[in-house]
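hey can u check if this looks right to u? its 171 residues, i copy pasted from the old doc so theres a chance i mangled smth
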Amino acid sequence: MTCGLALGAVGSAVIAYARGPSVLGILVAGSVALAFGVAPVGTLATDLIVGIAPPERAGAASAISETSAELGGALGIAVLGSVGAAIYRRAMPSDLALSGLPRGSEAARATLGATVALAKRLPDALGAPLLIAARDAFTLALHVTAGVGCAVLLTAAVLSGIGLRAERPNV
């Protein structure tokens, strides 16, 4: 588990620092490392939980493990998504209305999709700089969110290494 979480942290770090002309390949490599590291952790955790439970309680232990995994996944996505959205909004220019954009353009600060939709309706002289600002804000949000994910995974790796070292199952 510790190695899987550490590999996931490495994948997140790769995503956090992905830059340059071949950024797509770097992002794919980071995502693959993240997936290969984290995917087995759920299976190992469930096996550990069910293996420790008495046989008559194995079903309940499995249900609690599955519920915890679903809740943790949803909570993680919500927290990291909120961090990313907050970074994106903060990184977008706050003077959108003053830069020649039509009224109501402030909504473009909310999401990349809203910004792209607005930019398509604008002349190139206004839409192109808006798209550049939105892409830069999104990239910053992705890097910060991946960095936060990396820190969480590293913390989990250290805690699992310490916690699982103390408990050895009697096989």
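Residues 114 and 153 are 31 Å apart (CA to CA).
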